[in-house]
Amino acid sequence: MKSLLVQIDEPTYRALNRVVPANRQRIEFVRAAIRNAIRETEGAHMRQAYLKQPDSETEADDWSTSEEWKR
């Protein structure tokens, strides 16, 4: 696992300690926040790509090449 040194301002640090006071929990909180930010950013990029080049009506309704769903 890689290490990352991040400096934050005092008010943000105090707020973080109010939300997650324990050291290990704080690390997991920061990791989860980074993962969520990455997921949101990737989702926003995907939305923008679809807005720039949406599926045509025929592509959106064509299920002829879809795989069969099995239970």
Give the secondary structure arrangement, pairings included.
Layout: H1 10-19, H2 23-52, H3 57-61
Write up what this structure looks like.
The model has no long low-confidence stretch (mean pLDDT 88). The protein starts with 9 loop residues before the first helix and ends in a 10-residue tail after the last helix. The protein has 71 residues and is mostly helical. The chain has three helices and no strands.
| Main sheet characteristics | none
Helix and strand succession? HHH
User: What is the tally of helical segments?
Assistant: 3
Instruction: Tell me what portion of residues adopts beta-strand conformation.
Output: under 5%
Mean of residue pLDDT values: 88
Distance between the termini: 38 Å
Shape: elongated
| Estimated structural class | mainly alpha
Low-confidence stretches: none
- The helix fraction, in percent, is 55-70%
- In total, how many beta strands? 0
User: Over the alpha carbons, how many angstroms does the gyration radius reach?
Assistant: 21 Å
